[in-house]
From TrEMBL:
NCBIfam families: GTPase_EngA, small_GTP. Belongs to the TRAFAC class TrmE-Era-EngA-EngB-Septin-like GTPase superfamily. EngA (Der) GTPase family. Residues 486-565 form the GTPase Der C-terminal KH-domain-like domain. InterPro entries: GTP-bd, GTPase_Der, KH_dom-like, KH_dom-like_a/b, P-loop_NTPase, Small_GTP-bd. It comes from Panicum miliaceum. PANTHER family: GTPASE DER. Residues 96-217, 301-424 form the G domain. GO terms for biological process: ribosome biogenesis. GO terms for molecular function: GTP binding. Pfam families: KH_dom-like (PF14714), MMR_HSR1 (PF01926). This is GTPase Der.
Amino acid sequence: MAAAAAVLRAAVRRCRPAAGALLHHRPIPSARSLPSSPPLGRGLPPLPPLPFSAGFGYSTASEELVGPKVKAKARKNPMKQSRFDFTKVDAALLPTVILVGRPNVGKSALFNRFIRRREALVYNTPGDHVTRDIREGIAKLGDLRFRVLDSAGLETAATSGSILARTADMTGNVLARSQFAIFLIDVRDGLQPLDLEVGQWLRKHASGIHTLVAMNKSESLDEHGVLTAAAGEAHKLGFGDPVAISAETGLGMAELYEVLRPLFEEYMSQLPNNGLNQADPTTELETEAHEGDESKLPLQLAIVGRPNVGKSTLLNTLLQEQRVLVGPEAGLTRDSIRAQFQFDNRTVYLVDTAGWMERSGKEKGPASLSVVQSRKNLMRAHIVALVLDAEKIAKSKSSMNHPEVVIARQAIEEGRGLVVVVNKMDLLRDNQRLFEKVMDAVPREIQTVIPQVTGIPVVFVSALEGRGRIAVMRQVIDTYENWCLRLSTSRLNRWLRKVMSRHSWKDSATQPKVKYFTQVKARPPTFVAFMSGKVQLSDTDIRFLTKSLKEDFNIGGIPIRIVQRSIPRKASAKSNTRKVGPRVARMRTDKRVTVSDPSLS
């Protein structure tokens, strides 16, 4: 075995120089010419680069061989950092970018890419418009932060008064508060005549805005001259060099960052103090004071209802600006538009949802997506404003139809506060008798249809005339403060003793014994009744306690939850005492004395 191993080692030593010479095209050296024991890493000349080393990934100590790998890594270097910290800039002072273009070029998809969540509806409808309103969000691109606006598709040939003409007017109004614009084109379709018309419209209405052309949907195109030809066509728009991107896959976001970074830095340098927030001690003290008060946190308000009841008009009235598209057409709103405003030093987030319809299974395209999105926004809201049509109530002699009852009950089941807004009261002004009848009948009928919650506030407004705006917000804030209410345990137990004494029990022997009553959470208020004994509170008793809570603490219009917990009885005295055996009477003896002094015995 030892001889065979020695022969094998000698063969391996003879083969090494032969293989190296064969690869590097050198003559095979003889055994005599080889040094006896060359030092490791010294005495050998550098190997020339192989023609196939880059392809197969060979690596040696030579720098020439690893050169292509270093270059490949250099192309993947991270993006350069901006010299401004945009996270410390006030949101109102961030640069504003509006996304414009003809319909179905991917503006909403790029908006979702910027804000990093699927908020805008995206659907492939070449012959229709999905986005009709202006949507706003805070975009994140690397370390850049900016406000981004998603606009409706522009069609310059739209007839006056049509939906497309109204969306174009709304986009033109929003351009006044934008500093930059990203003009999107579909690179797969090439430059269309409508793209040229949109470019002319931008030069006319946005002459003072820096416009950047982005060739979207470029992920499926190769680099063999196709993108170069498309970029040559995009130069006809007259807005400089375009950027090839893909809003769906994220392709080209690094190149877009390199283009936007110097523009944003120049904009920020022109702001006083570079737009950074100043430390305001008054604001900090107020923030610290409100940290433990949940009612001072931002309020999420969702406006829901059937189609064409005036939800978008109510949102414009609350914001006091034309933020969303309104009109006589039913189902005009598709996206759930989110807007922020201040009311009485309180931040309020408004969400205008699409018209709530019964699911028939026949919804297709954007309509089906709108229904799903409306239900999601209902779950996220704190307070739900259910909008009713006063004219339809007067004609049908019924305050709420089945879809509206479903909305109200689902809001209550999800633990949300509910405010009912009866809109279009201006249409009943000429008929005073009908006007008063509606105002009297609606609260009573709502209480009958939704018996789970008492004291639901009802506000009568005219959103078209702007009447009732303050009343709506007052009721919303009052309901929100009740929704965030917290009561101390001592106060609740004092209240419980009074309530239990005035409640008529059928049999005092079977009366449930509530040990103590406490609140475990708010939003909505949730209470726990700790019971002593086997007798539990019946449904009638729980309804009595719920009604008493709402009446005594004035917390109507919100759902209240009461949970029962049983306290195990204390173990009996027999089980608690240790078992001790019979005592053995022991006599005191002195054995030592007995043994040591036998004379005493």
